[in-house]
Specification:
The chain has a domain at 1-102. The protein is built from 20 helices and no strands. It has helices at 5-23, 28-49, 55-74, 91-101, 104-117, 125-135, 141-147, 152-167, 177-200, 210-225, 232-245, 248-251, 271-284, 292-305, 314-327, 331-345, 347-355, 367-379, 383-396, 400-412.
Length: 419
Amino acid sequence: MELDDHLFRREAGRMVSVLTRIFGAHNLALAEDVVQDAFCRAVETWPVRGVPENPSAWLMATAKNRALDVLRRERTARTFAPEFGRFFESAWTRTAMLDELFSTDMIKDDELRMMFSCCHPRLPEAAQVALMLHILCGFGVNEIAHAFVSNFDAIKKRITRSKKLFEKSSLFDVSNTSEFSTRLPAVLRALYLLFNEGYHGTSPERAVRTELCREAMRLSALLLEHPVGAIPPTYALSALMCLDAARLPARMDTDGQLRSIFEQDRSQWDRQLVDEGLKLLELSATGAELTEYHIEAAIAAVHARATRTEDTDWKAIVTLYDTLKTMRPSPIVALNRAIAIAQDQGPERGIDEINAIADRERLARYPFYAAALGELELRRGRRNVARQHFRAALSLARNPDEREFFNQRVVACGSESVA
């Protein structure tokens, strides 16, 4: 029996968070072992007895009972979190205390604490993000390597080194506002990457992973529930997630085929999420700070307000990409800007903009770079050239969904010869 991916990611991060609070940061590996044991017991038990009515509660109860076993067995052999030492003498007090620590509100606090504990200032931001994705969000090493466009061994070493520092540190006090601002960027960046991994799919299995998007949205909402987390950049990131997630129902058609934003049935967009995203975007404008999340959310809002592709205000999108390009220069941003220019000024201008990207060699392994050129050449009527680009994209496809999508674009080019 395989556990649901979303259930694993949500519950694993929650359980590790509360167990690390109980055992202490120096016993992170023990907390992870207890969580692993809880999932192993589920795999052994559920096929025989059936999946419980509340799987989350079952897993939490199993982890709590296992934690009690560990505390009883190892209290003289292992050092736990100092503030819990005085409770170990009384079994009744110990049990009551664990009941409280496993309450919904305490778990939320522990998850928030874990977010910021992973973002230790002595770690580079990339290492902070990788650690958070691994511990709190249940990402495997290979998935993190995809998210960072890095290799497995490099990410594995980064996570191992980061864990060693984590285990030597104290858990972060989320009420300490003086350190909050220094750690917030890495927390937001990790949530942004988590959502993008679900939305843009570098997974070899499938292109769209809705459960990752939901998890990123849940953690972002958790951050907004805390007074020190409810600030404009967090609102902006949450707005971006809602506005992009609103399009998820239309990203795959009824046959399970990927659809670009130009082909999507916009009647399938989740209007409730659109409204929530627009509301969050308004809340993000309460301060003077302008972040890349504000700009990306504003771009998503322009798309969300258009009932048809042809109604989209492409000039506004180009202007927003101009701002984003100055804030976060990257070939991906430049490519998206070029596509928007093509929508506004025609395919020839779009191709010129793509060819003018300074570091476009970094896009060589990105399948949607070749696909963008293919789409624009197809719009120009140069079917043979377009077909070559789509075949290049097909050779770079990262999962079956992308392969089928690019194969359909090759077919759309037909077989006639065009100069």
